[in-house]
Amino acid sequence: MLNFDWISGIDLETAKIFVLMAFVAPLIFAFTLKREYIFKGAEDNKTWRNLKGWILLLTTIMICVYMYF
Amino acid sequence: MSLIGIDYFILLLYLAGTIIIGLYYEKYVSTSSDYFLAGKMLPFWAIAISIVGTDIGAVDFVGLTGQAYRYGIVVANFDWIGSVPAMILAGLVFIPYYWRAGVYTIPEYLGKRYNIYLRAISAVIWLIFIAFTLGVILWATGVLLKEMLGWPIMLSIILTVIVVGLYTITGGLSAVVMTDVIQVVIMIIGSLAILVLGFWEIGGISSLFDKISAMGPAYENHFNLVVSPSANTPYPWTGILFGLTFVLAPAYFIGNQVIIQRSLGAKDEWNAKASMIFGAFLKILIPVLVVVPGLIAVVLFPDVKDSDGVYAKLIKELLPPGLTGLVFAAFLAALMSSVSAIVNSVATVWTKDIYELFIKKNADDRHYLIVGRYVTGLILIFAVITSPLSDQFPGIYVYVQTINSFIQGPIFAVLLLGIFSTRITQWGGLAGLISGIIISGLLYMLKSDLFTIEEPFLYISWWSFLGSLIITVAVSLFTKPEPIEKLRGLVYGLILKDVELQSVLENKIK
């Protein structure tokens, strides 16, 4: 139980899906946030300041790396 | 290994440059807010670079490269899945609330959200842990420099403390962050030198894959980020996901004062949020700089017995004079960025959460600024005095890290519930924190009976987090809910729904 014996038997491909979800979940969360929350405090609303775009790029890089390795 | 004239020149240039830049920021310090939070003027990019510089210590260069040599790229999980999701969560949810609450420290936030007891307990535990960690870090790096260069251990320690003390005592957080920027640039250049020359030596990236893959079954997991619990590794995917990704990483990026303090000094809320997200981009690069050299070493020196020695071997075999000096400058930079960040955070927690709260209330701001400077100096002296303890008690580094893993899970549980639920009460939080620490201790004491792997700190973090979470919720449900007035600006979701609250917060920030 404490050693996660109940889950350690699953194959590595399925395990990788769980791991990828750790990147997908914050991405989905970021896209549920309102635009005014993301830009709050920003000097202007230029596209490059949209943190959703940053997070999309960040998680895409990570998902590609984890899918490859 | 020895340095020659050009190497010493580069080292001296680095040290002089660091001191000059650090001292320059003294003129911007006239209040305690300037000293502890850089006057809330920091841009996101400087904070992000500083967070990464603080996170990577000199010992990590040697340790991570050695672990990569032994276990492969699975070690990169600490900077990828063990950082990126947590930093996104910190940037989008926690940092904006800390920043809006106008707090200086995490214990101060806990005090506002819960009560003074939780603030005091978390501050004292953190101060004790971090004060001893500082001595351990200094000693460990001194030992490495002695092994590599033959420098006396205390010489490296005292040199570091004098340089760090000069700019941290005078310039506060601004000096710490801006010197971190220089230090990280030097760290990257020094590490790139090893990487480029290493690839040149082995014949490129494809050669790295081909040669390690051909080395037999002992290396079959060297290019796997997700490793089965049945493999001979301390980093099975179950521990990485449940212990690291779900608990230790968020606890580190959300509840660690050393990391958070920089974002609290951001010039506005957007810069505070962006600092963490941009920091995550930089974290992606770290394994390229410290893990890949470990893989290169597998090809170049396949028979090294002590994996912690491969980094020194890479420097010795690959680097020409001049670049060796640059890599050692990077080494000192990594040490100094960690030490200065810790010292500045200790001074902040001591002054705001202990001194101002229990020893001298309502003194003028200048008084707290002076106290902060004295404490910064005193903690450095304390670190020098306690650093030889590591020699007398060889297992102290592992011991300190183990103690750290005891408190990370419970602190994260209390922070998570506190920021996401209005129903969590002060007594629930207090019970959850104390019981979580007790659960960690019990699991550690019974580890040989309960766990199948030798060092189950990832699993202990998860179970203590879960225990703390359940107890916090259970006790909260049996105690009186907190008045909504107390929770204003401290719980996620309250702000945007409440126009009156939004204006109160904006006035507070102004």
Protein architecture, described:
The complex is a heterodimer of chains A (69) and B (510). Chain A starts with a helix and ends with a helix. Chain A has helices spanning 5-8, 12-32, 35-39, 51-68. In chain A, α2 (12-32) packs antiparallel against α4. By secondary structure, chain A is an all-alpha fold. By secondary structure, chain B is mainly α. Chain B is 76% helix and 0% strand. Chain B has 24 helices and no strands. The longest helix of chain B is centred in the middle third of the chain and has 50 residues, at 153-202. The model of chain B has no long low-confidence stretch (mean pLDDT 85). The A-B interface holds A 2-4, 7-8, 12, 15-16, 18-19, 22-23, 25-27, 29-30, 33-34, 36-43, 49, 51, 54-55, 58-59, 61-62, 65-66, 69 and B 73, 80-81, 84-85, 88-89, 91-92, 96, 223-226, 228-230, 236-242, 245, 268-274, 277-278, 280-281, 284, 443, 450-453, 456, 459, 463, 496.
Count of β-strands of chain B: 0
The average pLDDT score of chain A comes to 89
Q: Pair with the most extensive interface?
A: A-B, 38 and 46 residues
- Tally of contiguous helical segments of chain B: 24
| Spatial shape of chain A | elongated
Main beta-sheet strand count, sense and barrel state of chain A: none
Termini separation of chain A (Å)? 28 Å
Low-confidence stretches of chain B: none
Oligomer: heterodimer
Strand residue content of chain A: under 5%
Overall pLDDT of chain B: 85
Order of helices and strands of chain B: HHHHHHHHHHHHHHHHHHHHHHHH
Alpha carbon gyration radius of chain A:
17 Å
Structural class of chain B: mainly alpha
Secondary-structure blueprint of this entry?
The complex is a heterodimer of chains A (69) and B (510).
Chain A (H helix, E strand, L loop, with lengths): L4 H4 L3 H21 L2 H5 L11 H18 L1
Chain B lengths: L4 H20 L7 H6 L6 H12 L2 H14 L12 H18 L4 H8 L2 H34 L3 H50 L2 H9 L23 H19 L1 H8 L4 H22 L1 H9 L9 H9 L4 H37 L5 H22 L2 H4 L3 H25 L5 H20 L1 H4 L6 H21 L6 H4 L6 H4 L1 H11 L1
